[in-house]
Amino acid sequence: MLRSEILIKGAVVHERLVAEYGFTGNYQRVKLYMQEARPRVAEELGITPGELAGLHRRFEVVPGAQAQVDWGDEGKILAHVGIPKVYSFHMTLSYSRGPFCCLTTSQDLATFFDCHRQAFAHFGGVPMSIVYERTKTVVRRHVAPGEAVPLHPEAVGFAGHYDFDIDVLAAYRPTGKGRVERQVLIVRDHVLAGRAFSSTEELDAAFNAWVPLRRAKSHGTHGEVIGHRAIRDHMALRPLPATPYVVTQRHLRHVGKDCLVAFDANLYAVPARKVRPRQLGEVRATKSQITLHATMPNADGVTLLATRRRAVGRGACVVDEKHWDGLPDGRNRRTTTGDIPPRLRHQDALSQETRSLMALLNRAAAVRVEVGRRPLSVYDELTGTRPFTTHPTPEELS
What gap in Å lies between CA 170 and CA 51, rounded to an integer? Predict the structure, then answer.
């Protein structure tokens, strides 16, 4: 069968052996044989390694050695309550296939690693390594295949705090995390399909209620009950640190002339006496807080300018009025109204000439001043000039 079709699947081979030859062995036996026989037969047939690009070598790990992480796009499952998009975060222990899932409305950096903390609490420890795709929350920028991958600084800090290694897949190798990708589909079919939810909390509760059913099943690959194998997996995990790691997004932003810094479609005020217009500053954002820093420390070695609560939604302006002390507030602005100013109205000694002048200078009062009207011919008579006209007037013709 391999000689006729080198890419034939092991399940198809097992099915044909049972139907046509009365084979009594299980699928695992056929699969193990094909792992050894396929490269050998390919070499005998003269098939180059490039022609085996669709194949991969199966790997197994010891308990606690590895977990795999992936996102699932659950679409508009909560659109009826005003939430446009929902995403599912998945972490799978590679040895036991023990699952973890939580539903979120964002895939940003803080949410991504907050889901990690929830997964570690769910498993009761930290695996020695975690496999990722080349996502922007882990990889700072994409590079050519074979080159060293520059990691995101916050990912490095998070991994160092929880003591695990970051394993980034090679480019164009999605099969490297097939265990978690399979879990995305399983959760979607068994937990989400055919149900209605009104919040992410209900989605998480539905997953937690389904986990015991999943752990009670025998896995099709390793053949053991997932829950039994997961006990060995959990016991081998590294302990959680005493304090959690607070993930911080860092961005450079310019300070506006109004002492406001824009971040994530919201505005945050900084002290006017500590900044200058168009000064470059750093925004450090956690899930609930924004801290604004100068790029250079002051004389005391301090860079912190202000601390703000993180705004929810878009278009908010988070301001502390004290930070605008010393700036013009508009109270001493010259104004024009329809009346004489009060300070002049109550001065009895004010002359009539002054009152008339004030009325002329006042815009609204000047509109009410009676202006004499006379024809232009009066001015012609006074100057002794003849008006310029293209046609003679009736008086001139008479």
Answer: 19
Q: State the pLDDT at residue 324.
A: 76
326: CB partners within 8 A, 6+ apart = 272, 273
| Partners of 86 in the β-ladder | 75
Question: What span, in angstroms and rounded, lies between the C-alpha atoms of 117 and 108?
Answer: 15
Across 356-394, b (16+ Cβ under 10 Å) vs e yields eeeeeebeebeeeeeeeeeeeeeeeeeeeeeeeeeeeee
pLDDT value for 238: 95
Q: Which two tokens stand for residue 283?
A: 């925004």
- The predicted structure's pLDDT at residue 368: 61
Q: Which residue has the tokens 């000439």?
A: 353
Which tokens in the block code for residue 168? 């980034």
pLDDT at 321: 79
Query: 3-state DSSP: the chain helix, strand, coil percent, rounded to 5?
Result: 35, 20, 45
Measured CA to CA, the distance from residue 64 to residue 128 in angstroms comes to: 6
pLDDT digits 0-9 by tens, 300-347: 888 888 888 888 778 888 888 777 777 776 666 665 555 555 555 555
Report residue 352: phi and psi, to 5°: -65, -35
Token reading at 70: 């992936």
How are strands ordered across the β-sheet holding 66-75?
Answer: 99-104, 86-93, 66-75, 129-132, 165-168
Partner residues linked to 266 by β-bridges: 263
Residue with tokens 């939604």: 313
pLDDT digits (tens, 9 = 90+) for 227-243: 999 999 999 999 999 99
- The Cα 31–Cα 13 span in angstroms is 9
DSSP conformational letter for 272: G
How many Å from the N-terminal Cα to the C-terminal Cα in the chain?
124
pLDDT number for residue 379: 74
For residue 9, which amino acid is it?
A: K
Low-confidence ranges of the chain (pLDDT < 50): 349, 390
pTM above 0.85, yes or no: no
Contact 99, 227 (CB under 8 A): no
